[in-house]
TrEMBL record:
Pathway: Glycan biosynthesis; glycogen biosynthesis. Alpha-D-glucose 1-phosphate binds at residues 107, 172, 187-188, 205. Involved in the biosynthesis of ADP-glucose, a building block required for the elongation reactions to produce glycogen. Catalyzes the reaction between ATP and alpha-D-glucose 1-phosphate (G1P) to produce pyrophosphate and ADP-Glc. Belongs to the bacterial/plant glucose-1-phosphate adenylyltransferase family. Pfam families: Hexapep_GlmU, NTP_transferase. Residues 16-284 form the Nucleotidyl transferase domain. Keywords: ATP-binding, Carbohydrate metabolism, Glycogen biosynthesis, Glycogen metabolism, Nucleotide-binding, Nucleotidyltransferase, Transferase. CDD domains: ADP_Glucose_PP, LbH_G1P_AT_C. PROSITE patterns: ADP_GLC_PYROPHOSPH_1 (PS00808), ADP_GLC_PYROPHOSPH_2 (PS00809). This is Glucose-1-phosphate adenylyltransferase. It catalyses: alpha-D-glucose 1-phosphate + ATP + H(+) = ADP-alpha-D-glucose + diphosphate. It comes from Sphingomonas jinjuensis. It comes from the Bacteria. The record marks 67, 106 as: Could play a key role in the communication between the regulatory and the substrate sites.
């Protein structure tokens, strides 16, 4: 197909989202759901960012590979992402690990999650594959990365983010030459290689890859036939192509989507309780680093039909109010005060309760007189009247999961044990 006539490459690409991850560092938040299905920002889920990026970039064929505790994720995808139509050359496939290749086999690694669905990918006849992780918070135009992939003639293009060199120890780091060709790939190095000409900065892989489809399928088959492979992009395929092919780095700063208010390139892995809490609370800033109000790059999700949020009671000491907070629909703030918090859909807060820097997931009830500070409350939790969290670190740590930074995760089983 000749793309020189100005046709967007995204129209001939498939986005393949790897959404099987457990996200064990989120502890009880992922006891009943996969990490990509964890709620974020009041009414969305983490996976909506990768999917919205694909849609906003012009990609109309999307596949999502699911594995760990996938029910709530699949339900969300069916409700919120069922508008792509085959008759418009669009498709949306949910691809659970279903023993399609072997009677005993789950997806063994990220590459295997694509390999087991090669027949489905081939049936669409797309020229490019954009491989995405389903568990990061960011806005990115994949069309720009596709264009670079074509222009450079690379076998694989890897999206990378510039990070302070010694912060890169937790990432896969790309060692590049002056042309951003990747000459070495090191996983979580103690001494990360710097960017040429910039000794304090390293390039960390974001787990976003672009391949020509035909080439990717050849490589997946080669890898599947290789004894001892972990069947993983980061561990096997990318290092092999760095050594035997042409791997090119794509800098996230060149394709990061920013609104007029967004200064920097925003990308977050919300894989720990602290990081998850911080990213949600950051949204309450007057000018947040991540702009959810940018209509030119909307965050698509399943939008429940809900009544508006409501604030009731107007008596001194019993005034329904929220300041510097995000409050989703179907929430009733009844005689309680909310400060720098995020209340998801369907939350009820009762009289004399106080919330400060709280991330409250859908359908929670906060009892009368409860005082909660620096907390994440899981979906559907009923907080008893008068409960105080955030004043006594020692007591909090015996009752809830308390992080090093003093954030408490509260789930219903923890409340039931009180």
């Amino acid at each position: 197909m000749d793309h020189r006539k100005g046709q967007p490459l995204a129209r001939d690409a498939m986005a393949y989202v790897l959404a099987g991850g457990r996200g064990s560092r989120l502890h009880e938040l992922t006891d009943t759901r996969a990490k990509p299905a964890v709620y974020f920002g009041g009414k969305s889920r983490i996976i909506d960012f990768a999917l919205s990026n694909a849609l906003n970039s012009g990609i109309r064929r999307i596949g999502v590979a699911t594995q760990y505790k996938a029910h709530s994720l699949i339900r969300h995808l069916q409700r919120g992402w069922n508008f792509l139509r085959p008759e418009r050359n669009e498709s949306f496939d949910i691809l659970p690990a279903s023993q399609r290749v072997s009677e005993t086999q789950w997806y063994e690694g990220t590459a295997d999650a694509v390999y087991q669905n090669i027949d489905i990918i081939e049936s669409y006849g797309v020229e490019f594959m954009v491989i995405l992780a389903g568990d990061h918070i960011y806005k990115m135009d994949y069309e720009i990365m596709l264009q670079q992939h074509c222009d450079s003639g690379a076998d694989v293009t890897v999206a990378c983010m510039e990070v302070p060199r010694m912060e890169a120890v937790g990432f896969g780091v790309m060692h590049v030459d002056e042309t951003d060709r990747i000459i070495d790939f090191v996983e979580k190095p103690a001494d990360p290689p710097a960017i040429p000409g910039n000794p304090d900065v390293a390039l960390a892989s974001l787990g976003i890859y672009v391949f020509n489809t035909k080439f990717l399928i050849e490589q997946l088959k080669r890898d599947a036939a290789t004894p001892g492979s972990d069947r993983d992009f980061g561990k096997d395929l990318i290092p092999y192509l760095v050594e035997h092919g042409k791997a090119q780095a794509h800098r996230f700063s060149s394709s990061c989507v920013r609104s007029a208010t967004e200064a920097g390139s925003y990308w977050r892995d919300v894989g720990t309780i602290d990081a998850y809490w911080e990213a949600n609370i950051d949204l309450t800033d007057v000018v947040p680093e991540l702009d959810l109000y940018d209509r030119s790059w909307p965050l698509w999700t399943y939008s429940e039909i809900t009544p508006p949020a409501k604030f009731v009671h107007d008596v001194d000491g019993r005034r329904g109010s929220a300041v510097a907070s995000l409050v989703a629909g179907d929430t009733i703030v009844s005689g309680s005060s909310i400060h720098r918090s995020l209340l998801s859909t369907g939350v009820r807060t009762h009289s004399f309760a106080m919330l400060d820097e709280a991330v409250v997931l859908p359908f929670c009830h906060i009892g009368r007189g409860a005082r909660l500070r620096r907390v994440v409350i899981d979906r559907g939790v009923v907080i008893p009247d008068g409960l105080v969290v955030g004043d006594d670190p020692t007591l909090d740590a015996t009752r809830f999961r308390r992080t090093d930074k003093g954030v408490c995760l509260i789930t219903q089983p923890m409340i039931d044990r009180l």
